[in-house]
Amino acid sequence: MHPILARGRRLALYLGAWTLVGILLAAVLAAPGGLDVASSLAVAIPLALLYAFFCLSAWYVARSTPIGPTGAVRVAATALSASVISSAAWLIVARGWLELFARGETLAHVDRAFPALRALFFGFATLLYLLSLAVSYLFAAFEQSREAERRGLEAQVLAREAELRSLRAQIDPHFLFNSLHSISALTTADPPAARRMCLLLADFLRDSLALGSEDRITVAREVGLAERFLEIERVRFGDRLRVEVVTADAGAAECLVPPLLLQPIVENAATHGVAHVVDGGTVRIALSRNAGTLTMVVESPCDPDRPRRAGTGLGLANVRARLRALYGDSARVSATEAEGVWTVQVSLPAETAIAAE
Q1: pTM above 0.85?
Q2: Which domain holds residue 138?
């Protein structure tokens, strides 16, 4: 449908503009014929409004002969032909309209003067049609620009979603490999513990699979998943592994984060931190919200002299990549180790479910 006809307000504004054209046309009619204001307006305004609908066809002409693919010569020939046809058709209607009104002596005089006005009317109508065609081409170019921008944004969104799916897919094999390796070690040393770890792992996987269709979950659910994972690790470490969750701001728990964001961090805290401390220690998760920023801090004891085991380095790299894809430079991840404490701080925009909607 024509964009002007699609909305009543646009049509009203369009016809209002053409009413002004009708007033100008009435002035042209009144000059040679000596018509009074009411008669000249009665003749000119309906003609102008009728030609307004003639000029709507310029939009279809512009769409059928786009400037780029069509070529300048063909566009010019089509524009000239369409304007001449529309102007000629309008002149025929104008002639009939004047004959309908040519009942009195004054209007009859205007009717006799019509041949002299024909060239003026034709040029006036042609100019208006070409102007309408130029506006239609501008609108088509604007529409194409917006469509190209929309396609570009869609491509960016699809690329980002593909990246996020790829990063998310890396998490499960990563911790599954570590968990299965731990279960394998327990099968000979402590078979009941291995069985218990298998059950806990199955429960955790069921919970994580339920998040497959969710792009973001609340911090409360994310911390709950991290605690469930640490319960699996407690089968290996026993009382050496303790968990503490500290929430400085109650609103922090309602913020939204990507699922399984904390899992690689707490896994590193247990595997590379608590595992190398003789007396074990506490994995501490601290949550706070301040000035539109959500901060999550994970701390664990570590042995500065522990052997540095070569690994894939996937955990923190995955967290950084996911946050960069979602928030760009608005999110930060820092990891430090000082005085026997390993600390990871994650900062990202604080967004709640209501704000997201």
Answers
A1: no
A2: 8-152
